Amino acid sequence: MTQTEIAKKLGTTSQAVSLWLNHEVPAHRVLPICKLLEWEITPHEIRSDIYPNPTDGLPQREL
């Protein structure tokens, strides 16, 4: 998925997405980005400062 596609789906600009990738993703954008990317990237990978454990922020599996 391109930065432009991510921006469009999140209702922001591609410039904002580029800024996040080069600096830091805002906390309120972490989970929406992970969900948008179908959890291929985890919250821990994006912001380990607020999701310190590898499974933090992941949806619970259904049994």
Automatic annotation (TrEMBL):
Domain of life: Bacteria
GO molecular function: DNA binding
Annotated SUPFAM superfamilies: lambda repressor-like DNA-binding domains (SSF47413)
InterPro entries hit by this protein: Cro/C1-type_HTH, Lambda_DNA-bd_dom_sf, YdaS_toxin-like
Protein name, per record: Cro/Cl family transcriptional regulator
